[in-house]
Structures are given as structure tokens and as C-alpha cells.
Design brief:
It is built from three helices and no strands. The protein has 108 residues and is mainly α. The radius of gyration is 24 Å and the shape is rod-shaped. The relative contact order is 0.13.
Length: 108
């Protein structure tokens, strides 16, 4: 059996391969950046949406006042914020990657 040469034969093919790799890396960086930004926005919204009822319940409900100290309140708020960040960031990265896999980048 003859061995196949898998290396590029010309310098043009090598630079085209590197350009394609650079383009893929730039696309991956953009996808992850969009995910981080969307996750951060979701975490801020979730923090506010969780902090208001948590702090209000500690002031108004006797059970919450007796059982939820500052650490517990912080844990409740930060857990919701962290979950919102990771869920939204993951969904955004996957959606962007899916969208970009169907629409190959133009060579502009």
C-alpha cells in the first residue's frame, strides 16, 4: 500500500490552513465572550431578583429572622446568581456555536 502524504504540499496550502485555524479560534473566542457577557447579565438580574425577597423575608417573617443569618442570606443569593450565570453562558455558547456551524464564515 502506498503511504498518503497528509502534509500540505505548497506554502499556500499551509497558510490557508493557518488562516482557517485563526478564523476558527477567533470564532470560538467571540462565542465564549458572548456567553460570558450574557451569563454576567443573567447573574446580575438573578442576584437582584433573589436579594429583594430574601432580605424582605428576613425582616418580615419571624422564622426567617431566627434561622437565616447573614451567611445563609449570602449563600442563597450567590447560589442563584452562580446557577444563572452558568446556565445562560452555556446556552449562549451552544446556540452561537450551532448558529455558526450552519453558516460558515465568509472570506472577507
Amino acid at each position: 500500500m502506498a503511504e498518503r502524504n497528509v502534509a500540505p504540499n505548497s506554502p499556500f496550502e499551509r497558510t490557508a490552513g493557518l488562516a482557517s485555524l485563526d478564523q476558527k479560534l477567533a470564532m470560538a473566542k467571540r462565542c465564549s465572550h458572548e456567553g460570558v457577557m450574557a451569563g454576567a447579565k443573567a447573574a446580575v438580574v438573578a442576584s437582584i431578583a433573589t436579594a429583594i425577597p430574601t432580605l424582605a423575608s428576613v425582616r418580615m417573617l419571624p422564622w426567617a429572622r431566627a434561622n437565616l443569618n447573614h451567611s445563609a442570606q449570602t449563600l442563597i443569593i450567590s447560589t442563584v446568581a452562580g446557577a444563572a450565570y452558568f446556565i445562560v453562558a452555556d446556552k449562549t455558547v451552544l446556540a452561537t456555536a450551532r448558529k455558526n456551524s450552519f453558516n460558515p464564515p465568509s472570506n472577507a
